[in-house]
Amino acid sequence: MNISKMALETPKSDLDFSDKQEAKQPSALKMASMTRRRSSAASTCSYSSACYTGSSDEDNVSPRENRQRNSTGSSDFCVKNINAQQAFGRREIEIAEKEMPGILALRKRASEDKPLKNAQIVGCTHINAQTAVLIETLVELGASVRWAACNIYSTQNAVAAALAEVGIPIFAWRGETEEDFWWCLDKCVNSENWHPNMILDDGGDATHLMWKKYPIIFKAIKGIVEESVTGVHRLYQLVKTGKLTVPAINVNDSVTKARFDNFYNSKDSILDSLKRSTDIMFAGKQVVVCGYGDVGKGCAQSLRGQGCIVYVTEIDPICALQASMDGFRVVRLNEIVRQVDIVVTATGNKNVVNREHMDRMKSGCIVCNMGHSNSEIDVNSLHSAELSWLRVRSQVDHVIWPDGRTIILLAEGRLVNLACSTVPSFVVSVTAAAQALALIELFNAPVGRYKSDVYLLPKKMDEYVASLHLPILDAHLTELTDEQAKYLGLNKAGPFKPNYYRY
Question: Which positions does UniProt annotate for NAD(+) binding (predicted)?
Fold first, then answer.
């Protein structure tokens, strides 16, 4: 399949691969932060059915110090307490499968052909029940995989244990330290007698590590599939500097990912995560949503539907006009920061909410992030001598000023919906199917089809992903007649829209 190259001028940014874009804490605070993470975040969130919290003595032991084996004797994994949690995790995966018709249909149709035979995929994504369905689909299609988490707080330990039990090399647990994070990813990339030839990334960390630390391995990569705005920005920076040596597919900007996962997932999960973590009543609350892309649109519309008064901040005049015509007041953050009850970031940028903003917030203001990167909220500035932190729930911190004023910070500025709740399986199925198809396309593409550049999925593939999800919704497509197809100049089987069409 030919994939249409994305013609997009990438603005200058500092999201390149020269440095990992992770918040770095002052050294004096690292140990306290690690202790807090170990004690409160190492086991999974107790507010979600998919976040199993065990009572094992091993909960306080780092998985790196606890060598385990699955029922077949393999120890090529590192997860929390495989024996206690794997059965629960398997049930979670089975529940997710019932709401993921698209990826299961793709698994069934392609399992005999094994289109990923001999593919060796390094994955760095969120590890939850939905991702597990994707991982097991890739294996069913012939791939060999090794997997790590892209977020230190979003891993569902029971699901990771279930994957390890069936022999999938997985290195992840909830509440990793930054050092653990890179150790886990390194274990996936640099493995004896196993060399990756494909990357499935969410944020660019696997690509970053391989490109910087293992350049010889990176040269053997046939293709990269990236699903986040942060990772896509990083890839375009590599293209711009002439350092990208392999083709990549930008799944984040495919129609099915942007219009369905980004919008509907955010619309559904923002309420779930805020309610589970804070028990807040939404009606009448004043909320500011920073960014009005697909994620921001979903958040703003969902919160307004619950009776919130919603403001929007934007740098883009087109998005700002959309927000205004959707009935939201577009403001600068410093104009309303004193009065809002909830601040939600959804920009993919850095320091959107800074210390000056937080110094002016009212006591009890909830601050959270729905963008991919953990850099949108300047959490580093809150690690200062005059402020104190109090962990009140898993992923919920009270940051207390000297005068007693408090802000409520969720998930330490990381993705709140994956750290504090679960996500809807159905819409994740859409993205998972697109990711699987992108991997199949790049792995099987003849030499010369793709250059060392970033490409989008073609409309035909996007339409196929959407069609896989229609039967379960009892949706019936109207078919063009020969005369109608000729009139529109279309093939009756599609694609039905040109690449420039904006849905």
Answer: 293-298, 314, 417
